[in-house]
Amino acid sequence: MACLVEYCGSRFNGWQSQPHPNTITVQDELERALSAVANSPVRVHCAGRTDTGVHASGQVIHFQAPATRPAKSWVLGTNASLPSDIRLHAAGAVPEDFHARFSAQWRSYRYIIANTPVRPAVLAPLVCWHRYPLDAELMHGEAQALLGERDFSAFRAAACQSSTPMRDVHSVSVTRNGEMVYIDIRANAFLHHMVRNIAGSLMAVGSGRQPQGWIAWLMEQGDRTQAADTADPGGLYLVAVGYPEQYDLPWAHTRVPLPA
After folding, report:
1. Which of 29, 78, 191, 213 has the least C-beta neighbours within 10 A?
2. How many domains in the chain?
3. Does 212 lie in the same domain as 115?
């Protein structure tokens, strides 16, 4: 069984279940709620393991269903047992060879920046705040240096466990809507903190702290210590995951998060 999941990550210690007894994770909450519907323990797997404070509007999970339930029952029953900051939006049966992570062809993230003189109050945990004016058009041009299959060592966290720094970025854009700036990026996969590290460096160029051409230079250097600081987790959303047509997941499409 596969499901489409939305969650606000502000309250959670990331997606992945942890051995520490006092941590609250999205995985733990989902497994508890799904197990209640199934009347049996359920273990879930996700398309992308988000960090503490990171959100998802289009996360995809799968699990081996220990009991037969209609898709509607999985959704309604699970939501009845979930906290208000996690929701299932759809569910459907998938072939046994489907895996939410390993079957995925691409993932899309959106990074939201509130480009305002004063830090937002209501949206504080849902956006990154940048007080100095950002040139979104310049940031968009700089971001095109990220396209293609490249070595992303410059934007890879020191704790990243991937066996290779190579990733294939399919598309990237930076746009502005009023006071909000959006970084949208799609790739086959992402390194640990890759999007947040890219966002931090794009903001450095967009605010004039670094010169035009800096992103391309960083890619050539491949040195994380030369790039900008990691941007805040609150602005990051997993918005979509793409799968081969054979799995027939019509609901696995981009879900643009608020504020949009």
Report:
1. 213
2. 2
3. yes
Is 51 among the catalytic positions? yes
User: Of 197, 254, 231, 255, which is closest to residue 113 (Cα–Cα)?
Assistant: 231
Which residue range forms the structural domain that includes residue 216? 106-238
Question: Is residue 79 assigned to a domain?
Answer: yes
Angle between helix axes 194-206 and 214-221 (nearest 10 degrees) is 140
Structural tokens at position 205? 């160029």
Q: Which of 58, 86, 103 is the last residue of a domain?
A: 103
What per-residue confidence (pLDDT) applies to 162?
95
Please give the C-alpha separations between residue 47 and each of 67, 146, 192, in angstroms, as whole numbers: 23, 22, 14
Q: Which two tokens stand for residue 57?
A: 């509007």
CB 196 within 8 A of CB 93: no
In a domain, 54, yes or no: yes
Q: Which of 51, 135, 151, 184 is catalytic?
A: 51
Beta bridge partners of 174: 183
For residues 205 and 101, is the Cβ–Cβ distance under 8 A?
no
pTM: 0.96
- On the question of pLDDT at 99 being above 70, the answer is yes
- Phi/psi at 117 (5° precision): -65, -30
Find how far residue 154's CA is from the centre of its chain. 19
**74's tokens:** 């999985």
Residue with the bigger pLDDT between 254 and 77: it is 77
110 and 200 belong to one structural domain: yes
Q: Is 222 left (phi over 0), alpha (psi -120 to 50) or beta?
A: left
